[in-house]
Design a protein that fits this description.
369 residues, alpha/beta, 45% helix, 15 helices
Length: 369
């Protein structure tokens, strides 16, 4: 179909991978039939990702709501107002048939503009505890998609569907053996330590102290993502505890992995923050995960996400303030020393995985066009 004859769709969401990657997964599924415009903040990660995909990028300079009622709130309000006006201009100029938003502050201006001009919109929220934008705007949405069943109780919209989070197609096609081969690993028990792209101090610090024990005493392979800003500090500490780590073929240490699909698919066990997208991807990979939620996440959503997994037998839980080398190693040994327990958690994790989220959400979107 000629690009000029295609109906236009706005997709909005950004700031974190949990908002960006689900939006991109849906955009990829729609791009052959529709002309995609992505509304996002040019200072965030979404611009780089969207430009790599070749979508048209529409900028809105909006930021997260300040946590305290200071002068920053006035500046934030002004930026939000300008971003809404800019989104209204985009709607008038490009005439989208619908807007799809993945929650969070970046999606708010486009969704508000859609509401003001009577353009139908569909929302997706990735967390067990939906964010402020989803709670406030979902009553006006044509339909709402959720990742977690428990999130439904706070959404005031009768057309609410539990789809899970949209996943990249590689999660259904890449095998564990292929993933390990791509990373240069052997086919044996593998643990991923991942605190997100920024890294997690508690995870990094404790991991440095136990890597040698895991490799030498238990012959476990380790994939360690430190976060870009924390890499040098981690290497300094790791060298103190295990000077020979670079010569250990069981250990891979990097600031960041562009290919996180291979990291997760290669792993049997993970130590991770509890962002919703990470949970969905780890679940799709069948990884038994020790969740250490970020304690300052908005609306405490990471704790709620992690507790949900623990209550369903699909993960272990450890408070950030309780993380030490000793407590982390003890949690890991619960799984390493008990293959049956490890298998049970992996199976429970896989049961919660939803592989049809993208196609289900695409159907929701097409119903309003």
């Amino acid at each position: 179909m000629n690009q000029q004859n295609k109906s236009k769709i706005f997709i909005a969401g950004g700031g974190t991978g949990g908002h960006i990657y689900p939006a991109v997964a849906v955009a990829e599924a729609l791009k052959n039939e529709y002309e995609i415009y992505y509304v996002g903040n040019p200072r965030n990660l979404e611009k780089e990702i969207v430009q790599q995909k070749g979508y048209k990028f529409l900028s809105v300079n909006v930021q997260g709501l300040p946590r305290r009622a200071t002068l920053d709130l006035l500046g934030w309000s002004a930026k939000l107002f300008v971003s809404i006006l800019k989104s209204m201009f985009y709607v008038l100029k490009y005439r989208p048939k619908t807007v799809f938003g993945t929650g969070g502050y970046v999606s708010a201006p486009a969704l508000i503009a859609a509401k003001l001009f009577g353009v139908p919109f569909v929302m997706h929220d990735c967390d067990a505890n939906p964010g402020l934008v989803t709670r406030k705007l979902s009553p006006f949405a044509s339909s709402v998609s959720l990742a977690f069943e428990c999130a439904k109780s706070v959404i005031k919209n009768k057309k609410c569907f539990i789809n899970g989070n949209p996943l990249r197609k590689e999660f259904t096609t890449l095998t564990k053996q292929e993933a390990r081969l791509q990373l240069g690993l052997e086919n044996k028990l593998t643990i991923a330590f991942m605190g997100g792209s920024q890294g997690a101090k508690s995870i990094n610090s404790s991991t440095c102290e136990i890597l040698k024990t895991l490799s030498k005493d238990y012959d476990v392979q380790i994939i360690f993502q430190t976060g870009k800003k924390k890499f040098e500090d981690v290497i300094e500490k790791l060298t103190t505890f295990y000077p020979e780590y670079e010569a250990d073929k069981n250990i891979i240490v990097k600031p960041y992995f562009d290919d996180m699909v291979s990291v997760m698919k290669a792993s049997d066990i993970a130590v991770s923050r509890a962002g919703s997208l990470s949970i969905s991807e780890l679940s799709a990979s069948g990884v038994a995960t020790i969740y250490i939620p970020y304690p300052f996440a908005a609306a405490d959503h990471q704790r709620k996400n992690a507790r949900f997994m623990e209550e369903n037998g699909a993960g272990l839980y450890l408070e950030d303030s309780d993380v030490t080398a000793e407590t982390l190693l003890a949690k890991l040994l619960e799984l390493i020393n008990n293959p049956n327990r490890l298998c049970e958690v992996q199976q429970a994790t896989l049961k919660l995985a939803k592989f049809d989220a993208v196609s289900d959400i695409v159907q929701q979107i097409k119903q309003v066009i």
